[in-house]
Amino acid sequence: MLTVVAVMSVMAFCWPLLWQPGAGMSGGQQTPLVFALILPVVIALVMVEISGNDLDVKALALLGVLSAVGAAVRPLGAGTAGLEAIFFLIIIAGRVFGPGFGFVLGNTTLFASALLTSGVGPWLPFQMLAAGFVGLGAGLLPRARGWWEVALLAGYGFVAGFGYGWLMDFAFWPFALGNASELSFQPGAPPAENLHRFVLYNMATSMAWNAGRALSNVALIALLGPAMLRILRRAARRAAFE
Q1: What whole-number distance in Å separates Cα of residue 60 and Cα of residue 71?
Q2: How many structural domains are present in the chain?
Q3: What is the CATH number of the domain that holds 113?
Q4: Residue 149: pLDDT above 70?
Q5: Which letter, b or e, does each residue of 96-130 get, where b requires 16 or more Cβ atoms within 10 Å of its Cβ?
Q6: N or C: where does the chain have the smaller number of CB atoms within 10 Å of the terminal CB?
């Protein structure tokens, strides 16, 4: 189920590369409207399925606690210069409790923080899915212990900081500019050409913000990662999570 929803989520971001002029969903703003309606359904589906199969009551309670903590921490960074403290917690929890838990935590944390900060908008489903991928990737990292594990997580946090920004930019890039710019999305163009345009657009508009997010992830993981790993693993042992 997690694999199916992950593939559907990737398609929600990457559909512009496959879209052709004259397709059935090409009229006006029909395409973004359809995806804005279907993404919350996909998110609700994955939460119900994963909660029913893999998360017991204790794990579900911890999911709620970590989501609330992440929602409270997010306004402290406020995204200034790309500095974000919320992804540090998602990465550590995904590492300790696995990819399914990390994916759901990314979704619920961004949803709770949006309610807390009045950040609900058409961007929210994409933020939730992108943060879910951050937690999912942390749970799939190879085994490591000690400072090797911290270094591995710090390196992943650096990559995830850029990855989150790239996904969010790609979600709205087709609608951000007109067709006349060299940085704009060109309907019907080969995927390689549109990817080249997107790379130029991202470097011109978001590189500094993505770098700030990546560096803040590295700093928080290096400073607080060892302690948080011990705390969450101790909680997992005492709660006897499977």
Answers
A1: 16
A2: 1
A3: 1.10.1760.20
A4: yes
A5: bbbbbbbbbbbbbbbbbbbeeeebeeeebbbbbbb
A6: C
